[in-house]
Structures are given as C-alpha cells and as structure tokens.
Amino acid sequence: MGFKFTLLCDLLSNLDDNKTAKASTAARNQNPDIRTVGQWFSRHERTIHHAETDRVALLSCMFPEKRTDRVYWLQAMQLSRVIGRCLGLGSSRLSELNRWQTPCGFDLGGCVEIVMRQAENYIPAGQELSVEEIDRAMAMIASRCRFSGPLARRNRTAVDVEETLSKLYRRSSGRDAKWLTRMILKSYSPVVLPEQYTLKKFHFLLPQLLQLQNSFEGALEMLASDPINHFPPNPDPQSARSLSMIALQQLRPRPGIKVGRPDYYKARSIKHCHQMANGRRMSIEQKYDGEYCQIHIDFSNKYTPIQIFSKSGKDSTADKDKIIPVIEESLRTGLPDCKFAHRCIVEGELLVWNDQDGELMDFNKIRRFIPRSGTMIGIDNDSPPQPYEHLMIMFFDILLLDNDVCLAKPHRERRLLLQKVVKTIPGRADLAYQEVLDFNRADSYHRLERSFEKAITKRWEGYVLKASDEPYFPIYSTGVDHMFGRWIKLKKDYIPGLGDTLDLALIGASYNARDAPDLGQIKGLKWTHFFVGCHLNPEHVKETNALPRFRIVDVIGRHCMSIQTMQTLNQDGEFYARRPETFEGFDIEYGHSALPTATTLFKHPFIVEMLGSGFEKPSGARYFTLRFPRILKIHSDRALEECTSFNELQIAAEKARAVPADELEEREKWAKRLKVGSGVDKYIVRSPSPEATCSDTDEETSSTSFQIPQATTASEESFMDVCPLMEGLREDSIRKDSHNRPCNDRPLSPLVYLNEAILPTEDKNLVLGTSILVDNENLSSRQHSSQNDVMMASQESLGFSCPMRTTSFISAHQEHPQQLQETQERLFERLLVPAPSKQKRQMSPQSPLTTIPIWTPETSLGSFTLPRNDEKSSNERESCDLVEFVRCLCSDGPASSLQQSNPYAASQGTVFGIVLFDPKATCLGKEMHRLATTLSRFVHTGTSRVPSMGSIFFLGPSMLERDLRPDDLRFCLRDTWAGIGRDHFYGCLSWNPSKRCDGISIGQSDAHSESNSCGYEMTPEPARSVPRTPWIEITFDETAIAVLGEYISIEPLAHVLYK
C-alpha cells in the first residue's frame, strides 16, 4: 500500500498557497501554515501510522535537507539535462525547461511543472507514486556518490540515474513533478514546513527523540520499542506530559547515531546577554574557531570502535582519522585507568596547533589536514603542512558514560565528569577555557563586560554561555520557560558597531534560479548574487588616469543583506548594468577559480558598508576577505576611490588577526567601543522576544540587534590579573624632579585630602579643582608622637586633613619585597587625592573612595608605611598610625568631602572610614578592639570632637583587585557596595547617640554583648542632665556597608529614598 506521494504534494501546495494569507493582518496572530499542517495530519493520521507505511521514507521526503548522509551529485544544471532526457523533450519544450536559468521568476521545479502540464502523464488508479518508491530510488542514487555517508554507500549498486528517475517522473503529474524536483535538490523553497510543529504532529515524542538520536532511523526505532510503541501519536496535553516523563526514563543516546545539539540564542549586546542570563549561574566558555566533532566510542563495535560525527550529522570518521590516536591517548582507551568500560560520547572542537609558536592557528589551516570524502579541497594555493603543525582536539562536554546518561545532568556536573574522563595532552588534547559567572550578583554585568573585552583583545571568536544548573536538553525538566536549556552565543559581530567593517565595491552581479523563489516578493528580480571587488591600482589611476583594475574577492547573496537592500540593488543596478563582453570601464580578475562568473558589470559600482565576523582565507584563495559578510547600508555619496583597495583589505585583515602587543591599551579601546558601539540606532531592529537558532545550522548572517542603553551597574572584576584600582592613583604627568630624586631620599608622603574651602585665596600659586599634590614640603617625615598635634595644626591651617595610609597591592607581594618596593616607588609618584570644593558650584557625585579615610594596619599587608625618624617599636608605630587615622576621621575635612559622595550622611553629621584588613596577618577582634579603644581615648582626653554618628568598615584587601579606578562613579552606587559587602566584608564598628545600652567603659573586665554585636561606651556613665555620648557597637552585618552608596543611578542621578 504505502503512502502516496501526491498526498504529501497536497500539503506542500497548500502551504505554497498560504503566501497570500500570510500577508494579511490575521496572520500576525495565527500562522496559517500551522492550521494547514494540523488539518493535513488529521486527515491522514491513520495512513501515516499504518503498518505498510514506511515512516522513515515519509519523513525523508518531508525533510530532504535532513538527509545529510545522502549526496545525489545532481545540481540544477545536471538535473535539468537528466529530466529532459527522461521526458524525451523536443527542442522547443527543452528551451521552455531551460528558462529557469534566466530571471523569469521560476526555478527548475516550476519550469518542470510548466513543461509537463503541456502533456500530462496518464496515471492509472493504484499506480500512483509512493514515498517508499522515491526513497528507495534516492537511496540507490546516493549510494554511487563518494560524498555520501558510510551507511548510505554500504548498499552501493550500479545504478542508471536516468532510468531510475525516468520511472519516477513518468508516473508523476506536473504538480507532483515540481515538488519531486525540489526534493531532489533538497529544498522546497519558498515553502518551509514548520519543523517542530510538523514533527510533533507526526508523533508527540518525535522532536525529543531526534534530539537524543539525530536520525530518522534511530528515532523511529525508539518509537517502535516497548513501552513507547503503545503510546498514542497525539494524546491530550496532560497525558503527553506524563507519557513524556515515562519515555525519558527509557531513552538514552546510542553510539553510532549523532546526538542533536541544543538551540541557542544570539546575544545582540552585553545588556541583551545579561537579560537572557536572567540571574542564572552560567559557564562562559571560549568559542573556538574550528570544526565541531561529536566523538562516539563503542568497544562492542569491532570494526569502528571510534566514530566522529560532524555538525551536520554526517559520519566523517574516515576524513578525521588523524586525530583518532590523540583521542585514544586522551581518553586512555584500552588502559586500566580508562574511566568507562563500554561506551562514551564526548564533544569537542577540532583545531590546528602550532608547536613552534605554541598557539592555535587560523581556521583556514584546518583544510590542509582534513579531506572531504577522501579529497583535499581548496588547498591549491595553501602552503603544505609543516612538521610542527598538527591537529588538536578541544573537549567541552560529555553526553554519555557507559550507562550513565550525562545529558540529564547539570552542566557543572558534566564539566567535572569531563575533567575526570579526559587526560589533557599539551598541544594535542585539552579542555575548553571556562569561566563561571553568577548573574544574580550585582556586579555580573560589568564582570561579563570586562571578560568579553578580554576575549576580543585576545582575538577569540567569542563566548558560549551555558547554564551551570541546567541539563543538556530542556526535555529533562518540566514547567520551564523558553530560555531553559538554551545556550547563548556572544560574538562581537553580533553587536552593532563592534564587527569588522569596510567600504567595498559591488562591481557585478549574476542570477541563480535556486534563490529566486525566496526572493519572490521582489518585483523585476534580475540578480540574486553580487560580486565584491577591490581596487588593485588606485595609485596609478590617481596619478596617471590609468584604467582601473578590480579583483573579485567574494560573492554575496540574499543571506548577506536585507530584502530592502536586495530590491534597491536590483532597481538601481538596472541603470548601470553592462554586459562583460562589451564593457570597457574597468578590468576585472577573479581571486580564485571557485568563484562563479559575473553575467553583469556595473558601470558605476555600488559602494557598500560591509560587516564581517573577522577575516578568513577562502578555499583556494591566497588572500583574506571578510568572514560571514553582510551589507549594512549603501553609500550613495561615496566615490569609487574611497572604497577599500585590495592592499588595504589585506592590511586590515592582518591587523584584526594579530594579537596586540599592548593588551591593556587594546582592552581600554574595546571597553569604550562596548559602551558606545551599541547605540547605532540605524542598524537596530526591536524584537519582542529572542528567536532560537538551531546549533546544527550554519551561522546566521542577520544583523538585527537590540538597543542598549548606557549601563550604570557597578561591578567587580575578578577574572583579570591587573589592579587598576591602585594604578588609578598614578598620575600621567609627574614633576621631573620627583623622577630624578633618589628613591632613598624621597620623602614618603601619606595620602591626604585637599580642602579647598580654607585655601588662602591670596596665593595664586595654589592649584584648585582637580590638581594633584606631588610634593608636600609642609608635611615632612613624621616625627615623634609629641609632634602630631603641631603637625595637625599646620596641616589644617593650609587646608589639609590628617594624613592616612594606604596600600598598593594585595598580600601576594609579601613574598616579593623587591617587587613590592618597586611598586611602592611607582605609587609614590602620586599619593594625594583632592577633596571636593566647598565653593559654590553645581553638586555632582564623587566616589566615596576619594572622600573617606582609608587605613591599613602595618601588620596586615606588606604595604608601604609613612617615613619615621624615631626608634619606636612596631606596636608603638602602629598605635601612632592609628591615632592619625582617628584624628583624620574626626577632622572637618572628611566631613566636608562626604557631601559629594553621601549628601544625606553628611547632613546627619555622619562620618565613614575603611580599614583594609588581612585575616591571615592579624586578628579581627584585636584590630576592632584597638580601634574602639583609640576612639574612646580621643573622647576621654578631649583631643578631638568625635562626630555624632559614624561607621568604620573592615574589608578584605582583595577589594583592591577591582578593575575600577578609585574615582569611578560606580562606587557611588548602592549595588556596588552591596556586592563588595558580600565578597570582602569582615565587620563594622559604628556609633550612634540614639543607642541606649547599659554598657560599660573601655578597660573594665566585662563587656556588653549580644548575639551578633558587642558594645563599648566612650565615656563613663554621665549625669542625666548631660547628653549621652555615642555608644560604640561592633556588628557583622555585611549589608551595612551599602550605606556608602547613596545613589541607585548616576545617569539620571537618583538618590536612595530615605524615610
């Protein structure tokens, strides 16, 4: 019986007729194709699932493009000749058939229908063509082609293509022959079946089964297994969910059949990527520019225990056999320490490694090592492989380990398992580079931004983000959203303004009938492809008015431009079109032999701005050109001489591919471009939701994007090994005498603040505003403690607050005193930071790190200290330093400076301080008690008036590793300090007059304590008529530090709302 092919043609014809319905307003709410497919399956469901129907054959006819294992060796030109002979066409009808080669609006299938309708075949009842017959015929034709898969060639027979196809065409109507022709060419375009919905209507489990076994044969074998064979093909939604969970317990990948890949989303900006991450913890993996391979190991297969599948699903083991010894060594197959006994499936990227340079090589190098079905393609102009160049495998996932289905495990567990299974071999086998980022952190946006800057600087292709707590496929979880289980791809060319852009010339065009059906909305379509040319002799043309010469370097089609651009080129190009045989405006040459021939040249070439994802060397070429090029816009105001010449193209490619010598400078450049490059509105198309892209398909060339407002989220960067927070203390311009002065004679000035409110106005030599003090003669080296009061008075008279100490780098420098000394000497070149002026000017926020005192105990870090001429002990010197810190805290300078960073706190008479504390070097309780004691003694001795309220925060020195300058306004944000509190907070010492605790004075034997705090009273209990002095309290609430950030937004300026 079988399934009649004409029934499938009914579905395809109905979908073709929906073109008009799709243009209506109603189609925006409901896709008419969905309704058409649903009705068709309802009518033929019984026949589809009949025992005599070969469902593999039916699916192969419905989705011919998925049979990547079948290559027929029949392109449109060869197929048209075969069809002409099969039908016995005369010259006139043969000319009608060949009209597909001209811009007539019909492809080869359409012309076949027109020719056959002139003399329709008579088909007796019961003799209709079935999908089973078509599938058998196509399997025989594919078996003769060496580019077909191993299984397709296994049943290789001597087959006469004309005779085989003649039996099919002579039993088909004109309409059915049209779809048969398109099926052989593996494209029903312009008709596209809604894949997921069609597969689900075929059987509700089929989409999930194809993910586990990406072949129709394997998926249908699972459908025929027990107990799934008892499931109805289309149950109600509630039953479908229950049956799906039962089926998943029985299903597992099978070695020898490729596992599908998850869908992914393209991140159109850093903000878009951050939004799609949606607070999840994600693995950020480097995207390598190589060939994807899925490696299956099955020890029960005696002939091919190791199979390698390409991205398309084709078995390419024979072509990639050079990497098999590396795989065996890395997975330790046959050795006692091998981590699996029977079977394993891993994923990786095939790359080329250069032992001489110790680095990965460009993607174009890989074709010298991997043949295509035994034939080396596109290497005519490539240099031969060198002895120090070889293939390398970069593993990044594991899907099956014996009977353990790793697909159901979260990514973090799969990654740990992969580390146990794979033995890394330098230059041969390794694990993909990975970073882990929790997007629930307040600083996650900036972490991602800084990490992406690093990736661009190192010339990586990009990142792939995978949720750490999610399985490989979303089918293993229920009740999840559309983002669950989907990867996110982040590449610079996805973000407007960040890709490689050039102005290039379109000098010619040609027509390809295969693309014509997809461009049916363009009236008067004349060309489907356009030729990119580069000037070869611009200097000669300019100097001697010589005839221009162009080299055609690439050809672009409908995937490289929008429909509007294609229509513009077709309409305007008509006025400049000339035949190449008679055109003498300029000379052309083709860059390599694989390029098609231009049928039209433009008298005035189009100058277009083109975007690419880096540069590549095309197959068979000796030059570089843009990779994945697409047109952004047409320049109507540019002259031909302004476009990129061939030499300029090669220079741009070399520059883009080379890793910069100064990575920090390069990262700063990309940081600016990341912030401003997303604002190119003319290339932005808003979309209500992201659209998933199947990972098994080629890279999409769409340039749509999401608009990205300027980010104001504060953040911390821990991926990098630089410390710009302290580097920010260095000044670009330093006085020459500070350079020439010997380091042992240089007075080590402490970090002080400039109080402009009391600067002598008579002195015109004093610098106001943001000037930096680099020499401070009035602050000589610190003397004995008896001089402190005199020094303090001298400083206050000149407008300087009490000196305080700072640190340079984290405690890792303790083991390298010489390196530390050099670092300190560089930092001494700029030690003074100005405080905000109290003069009348517009209020603007200022980083708290430049307005509050910061102290580092000498015992906590190997940091520099203030100069001293006395012979005091270490403890005495520390006490002296602490006194100066408290004195600075109690002075008017920090209080006035606080007005810029924390206006509300300043108005309440609050002061803040920071103590950088290293728990490895000293005890937290000891330091907090010492500071509380010093504060109490200040009040007892009347040395200074302690502000009514204040807080001193103890933070870890690791906060100095933050990739921000101390004057960065993001330190004004509350979210920034909340993040710092989570990572670096140890404790807080605060005082408040509103406290009314029955505490005791410092020095008594017992102390007041609560569950998470303890207190000290600054003075003995006063009389009731005297206002109570503040109560010092020690707490360990990390959220308390958020008070340092008084803003929730900088642009626009928005304060935290206080009740």
TrEMBL record:
Alphabetical list of Gene3D superfamilies matching this protein: DNA ligase, ATP-dependent, N-terminal domain, DNA ligase/mRNA capping enzyme, Nucleic acid-binding proteins
Domain of life (superkingdom): Eukaryota
Any one of the GO CC terms: DNA ligase IV complex
Keyword entries, A-Z: ATP-binding, Ligase, Nucleotide-binding, Nucleus
UniProt GO molecular function: ATP binding; DNA binding; DNA ligase (ATP) activity
CDD domains given in the database record: Adenylation_DNA_ligase_Fungal
Residues of the ATP-dependent DNA ligase family profile domain: 393-536
Extent of the signal sequence: none
GO biological process, one term: nucleotide-excision repair, DNA gap filling
PROSITE patterns: DNA_LIGASE_A3
Pfam family, one: DNA_ligase_A_M
Residue ranges, annotated region (Disordered): 688-708
Family: Belongs to the ATP-dependent DNA ligase family.
Full protein name: ATP-dependent DNA ligase family profile domain-containing protein
Organism: Penicillium freii
